[in-house]
Design a protein that fits this description.
The protein has 196 residues and is mainly α. It has 10 helices and no strands. The longest helix has 25 residues. It is globular, with a radius of gyration of 16 Å.
Length: 196
């Protein structure tokens, strides 16, 4: 029963649409009607600027951290994995936004901050390097996600977390399928070195 409650809480934590909330509070806008229309941190940076974007990014990461830490207090690795998956699903299919949401990158990263910080550190390095090299946030997100299972194996993490890394990476890449199509067609927007 406790495990079920934790998973429900994890979903609701993930469902809190921080970019949407910050847009309404600070700029009186619906971020879904601006930029890419996404309620993730990248669009928050583009639409609302670096200060609010940073707040959204940290908040989305913390959602993943909190869910995993909460699961860790009541169960082992299996509950942690389930809570991680559920909080990502909450972020991408928010009950507060008609079961729509972001792409799960920051929240997914947050789960690994709690599970394997050394792994997410190197994944974040890959994420940043790919953005610097290509100027595409989507490429950084895809590369960072794809590196997770490899890094988890490299750092000798339990097989449960490796499987979770595979699932999380596959889900994040799947959520970027429109970006991949735009990249193929040469119409994916690049970052311009600043956020307005």
């Amino acid at each position: 029963m406790v495990a079920v409650i934790i998973l429900i809480i994890s979903y609701f934590i993930g469902s809190i649409p921080m970019a949407f909330v910050m847009g309404k509070i600070w700029l009186k806008i619906d971020i879904r009607k601006h930029g890419s229309g996404n309620v993730g941190a990248t669009n928050a940076f583009r639409v609302m600027g670096p200060k609010i974007g940073t707040v959204v990014l940290i908040a989305d990461i913390l959602k993943g951290v909190i869910a995993v830490l909460l699961a860790g207090t009541a169960g082992g690795s299996y509950l942690i994995v389930l809570a991680g998956l559920i909080v990502i699903l909450g972020h991408t299919f928010s009950i507060f936004l008609g079961f729509k949401g972001g792409k799960g990158v920051a929240t997914g990263a947050g789960t690994f901050v709690a599970i394997a910080p050394q792994v997410i550190f190197w994944s974040a390095i890959i994420f940043v390097l790919m953005i610097v090299i290509t100027k595409y946030v989507s490429v950084g997100s895809i590369a960072g996600a794809a590196s997770l299972p490899i890094l988890l194996i490299t750092f000798g993490q339990p097989w449960q977390f490796v499987i979770y890394g595979l699932l999380a990476a596959a889900f994040v890449i799947y959520k970027h399928r429109a970006n991949i199509e735009r990249l193929r067609n040469g119409v994916e927007p690049k970052i311009n070195g600043r956020f307005r």
